[in-house]
Design goal:
Blueprint: H1 2-21, E1 26-30, H2 40-49, E2 54-57, H3 62-67, E3 74-79, H4 81-89, H5 91-103, E4 111-116, H6 120-123, H7 131-144, E5 152-154, E6 156-158, H8 178-191, E7 195-198, H9 201-206, H10 214-217, E8 228-229, E9 236-237, H11 240-254, E10 262-267, H12 282-296, E11 312-314, E12 362-365, H13 371-382, H14 404-419, E13 432-435, H15 474-497
Helix pairs in contact: 1-15, 4-5, 4-7, 5-7, 7-8, 13-14
Amino acid sequence: MKIQNCHTSVLLLTFATFNIVLGAFVGVNIGTDVTDLPSASNIVATLKSHQITHVRLYDANAHMLQALSNTSIEVLIGVTDKEILRIGESPSVAASWISKNVAAYMPHTNITTIAVGSEVITSIPNIAPVLVPAMNHLHSALVASNLHFRVKVSTPQSMDLIPKSFPPSTATFNSSWNSTIHQILQFLKNTNSSYMLNAYPYYGYTKGDGIFPIEYALLRSLPAVKKIVDPNTLFHYDSMFDAMVDATYYSIKALNFNDIPIVVTETGWPRLGGSHEPDANLENAETYNNNLIRRVLNDSGPPSQPKVAINTYIYELFDEDKRIGPISEKHWGLFYTTNGSNLYPLSFSGSNQIFGNSSASFCVAKDGADADKMEAGLDWACGQGRANCGSIQAGKPCYFPNDVKSHASYAYNDYYQKMRSVGGTCDFDDTAIITTQDPSYGSCIYAGSSNMSIGGDGSFSSMALGPVGPVGAGLKLQVLSLHYVFSCTSLLLPLMLL
């Protein structure tokens, strides 16, 4: 039995090690407060079609776990808030939970992490005293099942635990929860697990009363004169996302812990909001999530931890129309429930390939925009922006109507369709807007149109992405895992030769 367990460990550890070597990932949360939630098999088909390699489930749904078997998709499963109390009070309940929801599906279903609750300390503080006992009991059950090397345990927490997150270098956890947070960090340190953070720049921006520019929240590049700088460390922050992660690292350090990597278990941007939520819109959602993916997949960390990649899960797969609250609460989804196509162009690979119908959105000149700014935008798009403006020259298909707005729309869109996969946006000094209506007319075909022929003037330029950086925090676990693999292999090889 001991040899059999060692053999199982070799297989699981080798799989885990290879996953670490692959570098940073971007996954997606799958919420279920959906009126017409697709079947588990259809959800998995959506994940596969969009090359999504990591998912987070908020529970341990049997249909989903079965549908995810033999897909290699890495799965983070959740212990619901309602289950925490019983598990925290009883090791036998924890053992039963692991047996039913983890061991029963492995190794065919690639379960790698267990998230205990969701923002327990800030949302249901009365359960907080049993949170760490529940984590310990689950880990002990994993040890008993010989799965603790492959499956890690943690608990997602909100940025609300950090009362003042800027400047990051002075950030600390709410002192009234220091005892519980210290226990969580000690558990994570002892088990070589990650701190789970739910980080939402959307709320940081909308509740910030204009302190920070929206470009900072959307991970757009800021000019040097507008860079956000921590006055204590002089670190430059290109995004609120990075600052939130760094504020958490500094808060962890303030409690005398180091080398605990952070995984962002929730982040995103709503694509629709009410009249008092103007920043919840399609363009911002597309900008944030595509910029986020590119940022995470460059394998770098925030300024204080540059070599520790920020693995991240986007919130969320589908709109949860049954959620209570403002309109924006119901519209964080990335895909339609009906057919699995995306609500706006999106690439989980960080490459040029944008999945979904490219005619879903176009960038055109805004009605009533300042004419001088529009003309400047047109000149920039056709010049420095490298848009193909041949079709708006005299005698070409898009020359008429011969006015600035029409020509700017064509140039803006050509730039946007070519460059959005590498950070290009539809703004042009507030003279442009995203539309889902195809602006093509007659023989004037806009880039991105379903009528657009391949090649010629409509071909997209190839853009190179940044180099892949170091693995970072995973290296230590990788070495330890390989040491264990080699130890077990040294035992197995002589037996295999018998």
